[in-house]
């Protein structure tokens, strides 16, 4: 998604808790450099650290005195039966999957309002797991945290959708609910026997899992004027899994 926005000419700031960006970030950065005026930039920040996050986002916005959009995709996963989940593990997952996303949206909305950016758009990455219980996949906290993200998008859309008298506000907020994506996290689920790839493929009407690249255009759509009358919506891209 970051690469797609960069290809469209955006200056895209990627935030993560790792000290250095992954190799895939550097590869995407190189591809963008040869295609457009866009750019990818990396910042190390923990999205659960509110003060550090606010400072980071404020610094980004101050550079050009604007901030146009956000894709909030923070998420961790733990496969554990509900009866065995430790309280501290539940709190840790919710801290990242829900609170980190909430704080990111708030930090960006604050800067959009400060600089009176019109047409600001926020996309919260939820999951089809926020709507269904994935058959055979024991992840009660992850799934319920994604349901919370879907509901958060609706409520933020309601609060921030109308332009205020001082010209601030007017921010659209939507959620995107992907289906199963082949990522390192999911490949680890397969390796550990926590999920069955064949069953997941069978659950999709397309008979396959998705790849990260298939969501590139969705991110551009949700953050651009192409979706200018769309807010408080949960956009499902799940290969038909939830439509059976």
Automatic annotation (TrEMBL):
<dbReference type="GO" id="GO:0016616">
    <property type="term" value="F:oxidoreductase activity, acting on the CH-OH group of donors, NAD or NADP as acceptor"/>
</dbReference>
<dbReference type="Pfam" id="PF13561">
    <property type="entry name" value="adh_short_C2"/>
</dbReference>
<dbReference type="InterPro" id="IPR020904">
    <property type="entry name" value="Sc_DH/Rdtase_CS"/>
</dbReference>
<protein>
    <submittedName>
        <fullName>NAD(P)-binding protein</fullName>
    </submittedName>
</protein>
<dbReference type="InterPro" id="IPR002347">
    <property type="entry name" value="SDR_fam"/>
</dbReference>
<dbReference type="InterPro" id="IPR036291">
    <property type="entry name" value="NAD(P)-bd_dom_sf"/>
</dbReference>
<keyword id="KW-0521">NADP</keyword>
<keyword id="KW-0560">Oxidoreductase</keyword>
<comment type="similarity">
    <text>Belongs to the short-chain dehydrogenases/reductases (SDR) family.</text>
</comment>
<dbReference type="GO" id="GO:0050664">
    <property type="term" value="F:oxidoreductase activity, acting on NAD(P)H, oxygen as acceptor"/>
</dbReference>
